[in-house]
Write a structure and sequence with these properties.
alpha/beta; Trna Endonuclease, Chain: A, domain 1; 8-stranded mixed β-sheet; 5-stranded parallel β-sheet
Length: about 425
């Protein structure tokens, strides 16, 4: 690889880092530890690397010690794993100090990157990596990398981060102040409708930007990367999953729904396509806590990592967007420890169950006539499961405590739940 081109790429990127607006995020990074950052495209991974680079310079590093390469740069078209060593050679042409910090953005584009990353770690280099595919955290990658990198999943903004970005106070005093609380609630509704992609918050026409991100994920991170042939079946599958948020759906049902439109597909294809969409951090699944293994895997409930992307497919479905926002919040905190709980024998149907916390969560846009249905499942679960310690109903606006058969059920407005 031509070293002059690499130097140009590095110098241009340094200028971007120096001028970037750094948004506070709720992530902590240890000093002198190598990281692999993964997550949905445009969720803020690169900006976190910018922040780390600027902090290093603030602590005494020279900019010549910062080697940042974005592998989506068109000047790097044709870059292969054999070219990685040219990056290292170029770095030492730019700086003669021992401590050089390497930042590799969207490195998964280059096949074989993991062997280079392993070599860099073995040589005690300081390396930060980002990517938009969960395969970077697979058991195979972990075997190659040998525990030399700490993985960290980066999600779109939480409500707290979105409010910080918009400079909207959301501490306890603000929540208790009428005017400030109203501002928080309004911003929360915008967040639920438009999602948490950082750059989208800057725009008046968020939908077009979010749509472009979705298309990039679909075309680049799924269709091209996974070599999907039946593009229409994939598109219809994502649309159907969006329409069934809040409900479990089997792969057989997904396949049948798509076949009904005249598009050929199969159950095996649906299994593969959903896996591709999960690897691209487009969707995630929750499993039924009380199901047998086969049913756990074959009948999940799917949610989207960003409400803005989900909203592209929904028209006037505030309940689905509300539940998806709660699902994202729980996924951020408990990762794979989030389940749903549904038993045909007992009639219990719980939207979210977090066994490590003993917490059961129902989501209802407004209680009204639904109160008995929502509380019945929560109380039944608490009566049959000693581990359950906290019962919650998240609503759009309501806040109170319901006493039912000796159990206290917290009714929490969504803005407070997302901020808690």
């Amino acid at each position: 690889m031509n070293h002059d081109i690499l130097k140009q790429v590095i110098f241009d990127q340094i200028e971007v880092i120096q001028n970037a607006e750094i948004i506070p995020r709720d992530y902590f990074f240890e000093k002198n530890v190598n990281y692999v950052l993964v997550g949905l495209r445009r969720s803020g991974k690169s900006t976190l690397l910018y922040k780390i680079a600027r902090e290093l310079v603030a602590e005494g590093c020279d900019w010549s010690q910062i080697i940042y390469v974005n592998f989506e740069d068109d000047r790097l078209l044709g870059f292969t794993k054999e070219d990685f060593n040219d990056v290292v050679e170029t770095a030492y042409e730019l700086s003669d100090v021992k401590n050089i910090y390497f930042f590799f953005d969207e490195i998964q584009i280059i096949d074989g990157w993991e062997h280079f990353a392993r070599r860099m770690a073995d040589q005690k280099k300081h390396v930060y990596i980002t990517g938009s595919n969960a395969k970077m955290l697979s058991s195979e990658m972990a075997r190659v990398l040998g525990g030399r990198y700490i993985p960290k999943m980066i999600m779109p903004f939480s409500l707290s981060e979105a409010l910080d970005f918009q400079k909207i106070a959301h501490d306890e005093a603000a929540l208790l102040t009428t005017a400030k609380a109203a501002k928080i609630k309004r911003a929360c509704q915008e967040y639920i409708a438009g999602g948490g992609l950082p750059d989208a918050l800057l725009l008046k026409n968020k939908r077009e930007y979010i749509k472009s991100v979705y298309e990039k994920v679909l075309l680049g991170d799924i269709i091209e990367r996974e070599q999907v042939k039946n593009k229409m079946a994939l598109r219809l599958m994502v649309k159907k999953i969006a329409e069934t948020v809040m409900h479990e759906i089997s792969f057989n049902t997904l396949s049948g729904n798509i076949k009904a439109t005249g598009i050929k597909t199969s159950t095996d294809s649906m299994i593969d396509y959903t896996s591709h969409a999960e690897n691209a951090y487009l969707i995630f699944r929750t499993r039924n806590y009380v199901s047998k293994f086969a049913e756990k895997e074959s009948t999940p409930r799917f949610y989207f990592y960003d409400n803005g992307i989900l909203s592209l497919f929904l028209v006037d479905k505030p309940s689905a967007l509300l539940e998806n926002a709660v699902g994202i919040c729980l996924k951020r905190k408990y990762e794979d420890g989030v389940y749903y709980f549904k038993s045909n024998q007992t009639g219990i149907d719980i939207d979210f169950y977090i066994p490590e916390e003993g917490m059961a969560v129902q989501v209802a846009y407004a209680l009204g006539d639904a109160q008995e249905r929502e509380t019945k499942s929560l109380v039944s679960l608490a009566q049959k499961t000693e581990e359950v310690k906290r019962l919650v109903i998240v609503t759009s606006e309501e806040e109170r405590t319901i006493e039912e058969d000796g159990y206290a059920i917290e009714v929490i407005p969504v803005h407070k739940f997302l901020l808690s």
